[in-house]
């Protein structure tokens, strides 16, 4: 089973790994496009105004542009520890120990606008590029990634279950046949339900933690739902789609 996480805009700075080596990342089929995008971001960083427009940044966020300028020389960290935010706080991968930590390293992956697909321990620098970014003179990232990334994800999905927790803009980079998808809804006392927006990340982070660390080997939507329920979550299943129900 692979649990595919969305990335986050915010990322931990620094790291103690060697500078970026694209050849060290998983899914070498993606290396060519990764290298192209890295080079484009480095070149773009020389023009702050253009970087702000392309990356939807304010002047107060110029540090993000500086990160992009040093993509090939900055220290790296494992992908699963690079990203920050609500989902990654709920996942809390650093608190896993022993066999649970090993299972998490094998099962967790991250969708990335810059690298396409990252396994948990792939070493990457901090960067700024979102799925909705459009680099000057280039097509949108979904159009660029789909031909390269969809075959890679299809091969993975043919071999093992994929639980796809990505947000809509990252789903658009590549579809995954047969993946389990997850929604989060809040239920009022009168039975009305509304979609959860920001805090769905926390619930997906808790689900990711349960799936990453479980001793069982979920291999279909029903066993994913069962794992979530054992972790104390209320989950409903409709085919390949799971709904986490939380109090409003």
TrEMBL record:
<protein>
    <submittedName>
        <fullName>Peroxide stress protein YaaA</fullName>
    </submittedName>
</protein>
<feature type="region of interest" description="Disordered">
    <location>
        <begin position="1"/>
        <end position="22"/>
    </location>
</feature>
<dbReference type="Pfam" id="PF03883">
    <property type="entry name" value="H2O2_YaaD"/>
</dbReference>
<dbReference type="InterPro" id="IPR005583">
    <property type="entry name" value="YaaA"/>
</dbReference>
């Amino acid at each position: 089973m692979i649990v595919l996480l969305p990335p986050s805009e915010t990322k931990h700075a620094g790291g103690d790994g060697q500078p970026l080596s694209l050849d060290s990342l998983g899914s070498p089929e993606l290396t060519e496009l990764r290298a192209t995008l890295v080079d484009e971001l480095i070149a773009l960083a020389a023009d702050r105004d253009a970087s702000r427009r392309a990356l939807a940044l304010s002047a107060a966020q110029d540090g993000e542009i500086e990160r992009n300028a040093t993509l090939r020389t900055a220290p790296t960290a494992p992908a699963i520890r690079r990203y920050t935010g609500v989902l990654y706080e709920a996942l809390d991968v650093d608190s896993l120990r022993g066999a649970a930590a090993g299972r998490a390293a094998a099962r967790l992956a991250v969708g990335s606008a810059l690298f396409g697909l990252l396994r948990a321990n792939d070493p990457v620098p901090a960067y700024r590029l979102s799925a909705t970014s459009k680099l000057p003179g280039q097509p949108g990232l979904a159009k660029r990634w789909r031909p390269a990334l969809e075959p890679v994800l299809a091969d993975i999905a043919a071999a093992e279950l994929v639980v796809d927790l990505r947000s809509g803009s990252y789903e658009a980079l590549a579809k995954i046949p047969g993946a389990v998808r997850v929604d989060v809804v809040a239920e009022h006392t009168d039975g009305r339900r509304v979609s959860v927006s920001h805090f769905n990340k926390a619930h997906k982070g808790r689900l990711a933690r349960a799936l990453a660390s479980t001793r069982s080997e979920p291999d279909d939507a029903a066993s994913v739902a069962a794992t979530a329920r054992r972790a104390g979550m209320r989950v409903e299943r409709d085919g390949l789609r799971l709904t986490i129900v939380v109090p409003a």
